[in-house]
């Protein structure tokens, strides 16, 4: 057990660097914050490097902290490394999980093309988890999975799914070869989502908040779908649309 009091401590400076994507990618580590996320991390202890606790913070007695290094910090340091306005004072340093998709057959996938908003990314990961999706593939231009807002929005679901970055063209080809139907999403030249056949295996492709799925990728799918708009809104939020389609497509 360690105690750090000064915000000028080199360890504190390193933690602060992890608020940047560059440092996270360099070290393959990231910080999470808050009781719920830390508790989820402790359910996957092999990914937890260290727990960082603000002094006088009471931890749940149900937490299994065996073999987890603990570092206690001052409230000043907590404010330095927090990415929220009102920190709960509980952090965990975690290692990035390496996805392991051993077989492509008979699984459900969510493919994301250039999702820019971290809140949308996290919400879609959380929804995919709830819908029983097996893997999420992050295409080019998609915001960093370990962005703090994305992690908060995912609410720990990134611990439950295989999530990896990849070339969506290659993934669509691989999935179709494996017999997995691939559904794109579009506003024009598409069928109502209710015309799709729910199944035990599928891949759903969602696109950028402003531009949607790229035309190049839409030309590779088996079928492109849209969700009818009955009111005056021009479109649905991409995370809401993903939730509707994921739950409809799964058998």
Automatic annotation (TrEMBL):
One of its GO terms (molecular function) is methyltransferase activity. This is RNA methyltransferase. The keyword Methyltransferase applies. Residues 31-100 form the RNA 2-O ribose methyltransferase substrate binding domain. SMART domains: SpoU_sub_bind (SM00967). Pfam families: MRM3-like_sub_bind, SpoU_methylase. GO terms for biological process: methylation. It comes from Heyndrickxia acidicola. Belongs to the class IV-like SAM-binding methyltransferase superfamily. RNA methyltransferase TrmH family. Keywords: Methyltransferase, Transferase.
